[in-house]
């Protein structure tokens, strides 16, 4: 990239977790590494250009979203309003029959929604290409692309203005905003509402989506520091460089730290919400973005030999397990009934190991397997207690226990600050928290402190975080190249000649 061979790009990535991926991570069912399951960001879609291109470049295996064994049944989507399933659809049904059902029930609203989504998301996708890419301001670019008309109003208002019926908005679109962002249509802005409807080509990576970001770091040749928290960033006002003070945890779960790590950089990119970073800045940032509220989302994973209970969903007790959707989304209740979860998914069947006591130190050993069990995932605003989980299952106390096991054989819980609340707005955080040096005459300095998380209030997805990362990287590299050209020009003007 640079004509001067002495100039090299040295990248260091600080990661406070013992893994790469942030909110995209997996846990092992039954603590078995052969059975990972997504705990955070679970899927991406065909329109996510950066992620799809990375998957192809790194040769990552895509997980089939359809049923994959004789124990699994076709995917059935249901929307529950606290009283009944207001909508169901099966992947096993003819595509055109599903479309006909939608049109019969909701008129032209599904078609209008699809067209509106394509138009709105199509405008956003222009941010990937010149003349909009790379962009120096989310707010200005959104205005140039006429996206502010969708961002400045709620999803409910945006849909009404585009002749989409309240019935379809409640049953289908709001179910999507709730499962994706834990927010109703009167709370979330119109652009993010449309993003929720761009679901064509949903996919995930076998073994976990975190492998995409792990591949990105490896391909960059960056020095990765896991278990390392940045505690402070100090600017040298003379050299316009930044000193990072970091604290390294010796191992996961080990609270001993080394606080004596300090390194100096020309450019820093903060790829985490500032309010959660716990970083002190010296001197203080001139104009830091304000803290914004994030959704506190509880994720509960559990396994059980029992299917979901028909009676919980007000279905006849004689209903078979096949009559209950495998993915249950929710919308608001007509009786203002509180629904304690946003979604319940029967992810797949899993094979539990039988553990028997053994070994010289009394460690458990794996010995064969039991019958297959169901793996469930719940998104909820509050933690799920054992009593509620048992109420979801098909009368477990009326049937013999399998080898003395409880109805819930494995369980894992995690609370995430998953994404921001996304009300209508007209402006977004600056891409720069601090500039390395004065910029005049339209000149952009590569140095300074850059910030990626401002895009989360615009669109909060793995893809858009990737877009912002690539955008800032392009801005920094373009500025470095321009600085190199200017240095060469100064050498020529001074009569010294080219340094190369």
Features:
500 residues; four-stranded mixed sheet; alpha+beta; single chain; 24% strand; seven-stranded mixed sheet; 22 strands; disordered N terminus
Write structural notes for this entry.
By secondary structure, the chain is of the alpha+beta class. The protein is 26% helix and 24% strand. Strands 6-5-15-16-19-14-20 form a 7-stranded mixed beta sheet, with helices on one face. A 4-stranded mixed beta sheet has the order 11-10-9-13, with no helix packed on it. The longest helix is centred in the C-terminal third of the chain and has 32 residues. The two termini are 13 Å apart. 30% of the residues are buried. The N terminus is likely disordered.
Quickly describe the structure.
The protein is of the alpha+beta class and 500 residues long. The chain has 11 helices and 22 strands. A 7-stranded mixed sheet has the order 6-5-15-16-19-14-20, with helices on one face. Strands 11-10-9-13 form a 4-stranded mixed sheet, with no helix packed on it.
Largest sheet: 7 strands, mixed
Helix content: 25-40%
Structural class comes to: alpha+beta
- Average pLDDT level: 88
Q: Alpha-carbon distance between the termini?
A: 13 Å
Share in β-strands: 15-25%
Specify the number of helices: 11
Tell me the Rg in angstroms.
26 Å
The global form is globular
What's the count of strands?
22
Query: In order across it, which strands form the biggest sheet?
Result: 6-5-15-16-19-14-20
Low-confidence regions: 1-6, 399-404
């Amino acid at each position: 990239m640079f004509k001067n061979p002495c100039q090299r790009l040295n990248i260091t990535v600080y990661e406070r977790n013992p893994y790469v991926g942030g909110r995209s991570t997996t846990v092992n069912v039954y603590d078995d590494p052969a059975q990972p399951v997504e705990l955070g960001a679970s899927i991406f879609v065909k329109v996510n250009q950066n992620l799809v291109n990375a998957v192809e470049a790194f040769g990552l295996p895509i997980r089939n979203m359809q049923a994959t064994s004789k124990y699994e049944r076709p995917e059935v989507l249901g929307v529950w309003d606290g009283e009944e399933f207001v909508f169901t659809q099966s992947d096993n049904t003819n595509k055109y029959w599903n479309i006909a059902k939608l049109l019969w029930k909701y008129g032209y609203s599904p078609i209008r929604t699809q067209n509106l989504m394509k138009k709105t998301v199509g405008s956003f996708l222009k941010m990937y290409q010149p003349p909009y890419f790379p962009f120096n301001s989310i707010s200005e670019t959104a205005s140039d692309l006429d996206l502010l008309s969708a961002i400045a109003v709620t999803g409910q208002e945006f849909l009404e203005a585009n002749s989409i019926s309240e019935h379809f908005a409640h049953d289908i679109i709001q179910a999507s905003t709730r499962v994706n962002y834990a927010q109703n249509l009167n709370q979330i802005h119109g652009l993010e509402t449309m993003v929720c409807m761009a679901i064509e080509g949903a996919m995930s990576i076998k073994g976990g989506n975190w492998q995409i970001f792990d591949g990105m770091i490896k391909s960059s040749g960056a020095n990765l520091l896991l278990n390392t928290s940045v505690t402070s960033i100090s600017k040298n006002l003379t050299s316009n460089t930044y000193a990072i003070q970091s604290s390294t945890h010796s191992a996961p779960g080990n609270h001993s730290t080394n606080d004596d790590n300090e390194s100096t950089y020309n450019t820093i990119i903060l790829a985490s919400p500032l309010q959660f970073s716990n970083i002190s800045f010296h001197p203080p940032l001139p104009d830091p973005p304000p803290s914004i509220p994030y959704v506190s989302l509880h994720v509960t994973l559990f396994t059980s030999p029992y299917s979901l209970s028909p009676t919980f969903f007000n279905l006849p007790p004689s209903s078979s397990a096949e009559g209950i959707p495998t993915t249950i989304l929710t919308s608001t209740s007509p009786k203002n009934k509180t629904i304690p979860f946003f979604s319940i998914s029967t992810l797949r069947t899993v094979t539990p190991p039988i553990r028997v006591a053994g070994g010289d130190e009394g460690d458990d050993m794996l010995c064969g397997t039991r019958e297959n069990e169901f793996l469930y995932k719940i998104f909820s605003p509050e933690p799920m207690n054992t009593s509620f989980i048992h109420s979801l299952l098909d009368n477990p106390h009326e049937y013999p226990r399998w080898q003395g096991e409880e109805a819930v054989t494995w369980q894992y819980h995690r609370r995430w600050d998953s994404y921001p609340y996304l009300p209508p707005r007209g402006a977004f955080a600056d891409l720069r928290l601090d500039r390395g040096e004065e910029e005049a005459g339209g000149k952009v300095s590569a140095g300074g402190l850059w910030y990626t998380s401002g895009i989360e209030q615009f669109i909060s997805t793995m893809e858009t975080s990737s877009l912002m990362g690539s955008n800032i990287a392009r801005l920094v590299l373009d500025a470095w190249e321009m600085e190199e050209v200017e240095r060469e020009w100064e050498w020529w003007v001074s009569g010294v000649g080219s340094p190369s």
